[in-house]
Amino acid sequence: MKRTVLLATVIVLAGLGLSGLDLELSVRGETGVTSVLWHTIRFGRSDAGNSLFDYRTQGGQEVLFPFLRFSTEITVSGRHEVELIYQPLTFDTKSRIPENETITIDGVAFDGSGDGGAGDGRPLDLVYGFDFWRGTYRYRFVNTDRGIISFGGGLQLRNARISFETTDGELRVVSQDLGPVPVLSLAGRREIGFDGLFLEGSLEGFYAPIRYLNLRDVDVIGWLYDVAFRAGIATGERSEAFAGLRALGGGADGTGRAPDAWTVTQTEPRYTWNNLNLIALTIGARLR
User: Fold this and answer.
1) Average pLDDT in the 76-85 region?
2) What is the pLDDT of residues 185-228, one digit of tens each?
3) Domains of the chain and any CATH numbers
4) What is the pLDDT of residue 220?
5) Is 39 buried (19+), middle (13-18) or exposed (0-12) by CB count in 10 A?
6) Beta strand 172-192 with 197-208: parallel, antiparallel or unpaired?
């Protein structure tokens, strides 16, 4: 963590090309639980027999999962905010395909006739990984002793890893993707009372309906949102604790480029629909 903070400081100073700035550093960590509200995915066009797969009802995502988030924020001259975020977000679940049922993912027919034991269908292992890193710059256009409002933009780097595999290893679909996503960001904070109480929130997201706007040269519609509300209290001169509620999601709709990696199953351009929506309850702390 110390190395991360130091590296972030060096990058900001080098980018601004200034010295003698009024800098304030803070690190924040959150933990809690998250629930998948709804989550569907389809690889391949439906007219080719590919199924719309529901991760909640078919893929084992109907339970609660642990939630973690880590961030570093650097404030320059009381007006410029640079925030660096790491968000692990991987769901590793187990399910089964009932007998006499078939789902088709990326042209691969997963049927329930495999040896699942006692005629209970075919066991299915699933991984849905969407970890990301995000860097954001915001400018504080309101900056008073009682409140702050800032607006800006940034870039998110997605690290998608999605797989469907029968436990016998007979059937498998693997999809992986690493790429940038633009983000707009609005954040605010309000001090309440005289006992270190505060409210703060953020709204980040983007909608890209055409190529190039989504930082790609293919017509894939992409979207993301990350909305958070926190209430907290100062626990020391340079520390505070908070509880939060967060809604997080995103997705894609369109046909991408042909992959060139051996790890993925489909080597031709294919259609993808993906729609993930989460809600998380968290507690956390910030150190300045």
Assistant:
1) 95
2) 999 999 997 788 999 999 999 998 766 565 566 678 889 999 99
3) 2-287 (2.40.128)
4) 80
5) buried
6) antiparallel
